[in-house]
Amino acid sequence: MTTTVTPTDAKPADKSRRPRLPKAARAGGQLHGGPIAYAILILFTIVSLFPLVWSAIAASRDNNRLAQTPPPFWFGGGLFDKIELAWTDANLGEAFFNTTVVAGVSAATVVFLSTIAGFAFAKLRFRGRGAMMLIVIGTMMVPPQLSVIPLYMMVAKLDWTDQLQAVIFPSLVSAFGVFFMRQYLIQALPDEIIEAARVDGASSWRVVWHVVFPAARPAMAVLGMLVFVQTWNDFLWPFLVLTQTGNPTVQVAVAALGRGYTPDQSLIMAGALLGTLPLLLVFAIFGKQIVGGIMQGAVKG
Amino acid sequence: MTTRHDTAAPPVKEGGAAPGRPPGDDASAAALQKRARLSRRWQRDIRWSPYAFVSPFFLLFVAFGLFPLLYTGWASLHQVELTAPTDMNWVGLRNYTRIFDDEFFWNAAKNTLTIGVISTVPQLLMAMGIAHILNYKLRASTFFRVAMLAPYATSIAAASLVFVMLFGRDYGMINWTLDAVGIDPVDWQNDKWPSQIAVSSIIIWRWTGYNALIYLAAMQAIPHDLYESAALDGASRWQQFIHVTVPALRPTILFTCVVSTIGASQVFGEPLLFDANKGTSGGAEHQFQTLGLYLYEQGWVAQHLGRASAIAWTMFLMLIVIGVINYVISRRLRASS
């Protein structure tokens, strides 16, 4: 498995994204971005944020205003009323609670299982390690849609329709998480520390608890956030096993708004906005860490 | 913990005796026995704990990953109805011949391909360009990076619903803008290519920033003496980009292509919500019905889970073929460089 340590693996130090100032040449001897670079970035940022801002504008207007030709460009007064309506009428309040449970449980479990499995793959020697790791990597490439039919049969048989565990269990399988933690621990956890703990007579479990978890904490946080975001936004599977009236997740409730018979556009926009807001908040606070985590995972992959 | 390593003994071979064992001759028999027991426990721990650490993942993987995948293949050879998912009648390959005879299957396959191309190619090219710009020294670079992840934080459902309004034929923002610059309004829902472009634009919007960050990460790992020597040879910025950056990014490009291809084969929520009234048919004329949507229509609307399984398994085989082609091409490229 040592062959997986590619040259890109050896450069984890670059994750401190603040360029070292004196030498001009970071990657490519490139200089400061010129006005054109800023112009493109600003345009791209506007395109990225505009639909979200516009959903708030549309939610703050009534439907008559939305059915007129110059579309509204600024907020009206009805935003909070509509959000309140979406919260109660579209069942978004309950959906929020459900999704928090699902995403929270999934994130915590995936992080825990991925860390111990990733540690075993990174630092312990055992028969079948290479083959098992290959299976993990192979699984990362299998799209989830291929499994939904048997999973649906399982859920039907277990009578789990409309229950949150139907969504939680399949989301616990994260080959990416195992891979991510393995790559992190290979470089972040020096063998000497494990040896030292061994010399002190620590069992493997104590090593995990007192050495691996503290060392892995930054990566665990990033993985937790990534899994949380992914589970929060997961659409197909919850859509198949949960209904709007029985324990919907946010995505199911929001989609149901769009598929309703009375298309209350402004209410739909309020729901879409409300369903996105918590994650936007998380990104606003932990954006730097999430960016770092995605980039870190990318170089390793 | 970190102060320990200088005092640590040289690495102990795993499977060996308990480390730090003093010479045994002066120990009492009881202590020896105790030590032997500890040593056995130690060995068991060393040998079996790796399996204990990986087994929860593999148990879940077998139950909710591997088994369903294989069972999909098994179910595809049966007639299974949604209303009674446990009654299975063997029909051999009839599900497959049924879908291969269905024009809507081929229509969906074609749509999946075209939407895949329309969404993936511009997305990755733009991501590459943005990553290149982000690799300059910039003020507020963290802000830009986080801002372009906002679409990634937005769910398929929310994004699709907002885009449906923006693409609205009569009162949508996009047609209004087109009108303002003198272009006739476009029927984004009912015309074939416009609708596919609109659906693709949701995908492009959600994933470009994410892919840009992945490219950026790879770009930052390129050693810059490569650029210095290229510059010494008189290469312009653009030539440096083509002859240094792109070749160095090849593994990452391949990775994003594979991931995007898999993603493109699965497109479901965007077309489902893009025309809420038509739902699973993907537009009045099935003009943007993808394979994912077709699978759902066969399984959950027509209630033929067996046939839906056959679709899923066909998609899987198609992906494998594409994967093999991808692999061959990338090997060729590597060999030629």
TrEMBL record, chain A:
Pfam families xref list: BPD_transp_1
Keywords, A to Z, come to: Cell membrane, Membrane, Transmembrane, Transmembrane helix, Transport
**Could you mention a single GO BP entry for this protein?**
transmembrane transport
ABC transmembrane type-1 domain: from which residue to which, for each copy? 96-286
User: Where would you say this protein principally sits, based on its record?
Assistant: membrane
InterPro entries named in the record: MetI-like (IPR000515), MetI-like_sf (IPR035906)
Record-linked Gene3D superfamilies: MetI-like (1.10.3720.10)
Q: Which GO terms describe its cellular component?
A: plasma membrane
Instruction: Tell me if Endoplasmic reticulum is a UniProt keyword of this record.
Output: no
Q: Please give the superkingdom of this protein's source.
A: Bacteria
The record's region (Disordered) falls at 1-27
Where can this protein be found?
Cell membrane
* Transmembrane segment boundaries: 36-57, 101-122, 134-155, 167-186, 207-229, 267-286
Entry's SUPFAM superfamilies? MetI-like
Q: How does it sit in the membrane?
A: Multi-pass membrane protein
Q: Which positions carry the signal peptide feature in this UniProt record?
A: none
Q: Which family does it belong to?
A: Belongs to the binding-protein-dependent transport system permease family.
Q: What is this protein called?
A: Sugar ABC transporter permease
TrEMBL record, chain B:
What InterPro entries does this protein's entry cite?
ABC_transporter_permease, MetI-like, MetI-like_sf
Protein's membrane topology: Multi-pass membrane protein
Q: Which GO terms describe its cellular component?
A: plasma membrane
Tell where it localizes.
Cell membrane
From the record, what ranges are coiled-coil? none
- Which GO biological process entries does UniProt record here? transmembrane transport
* TM region positions: 48-71, 113-134, 146-168, 310-329
Q: Which CDD domains match?
A: TM_PBP2
Query: Record keywords: Transmembrane included?
Result: yes
Keywords, in A-Z order: Cell membrane, Membrane, Transmembrane, Transmembrane helix, Transport
Identify the Pfam families for this entry. BPD_transp_1
Q: Domain ABC transmembrane type-1: where? A: 109-326
Q: Where is this region: Disordered?
A: 1-27
Q: Which family does it belong to?
A: Belongs to the binding-protein-dependent transport system permease family.
PANTHER family, per database record: ABC TRANSPORTER PERMEASE PROTEIN, INNER MEMBRANE ABC TRANSPORTER PERMEASE PROTEIN YCJO
Entry protein name: ABC transporter permease
Q: Which organism is it from?
A: Streptomyces resistomycificus
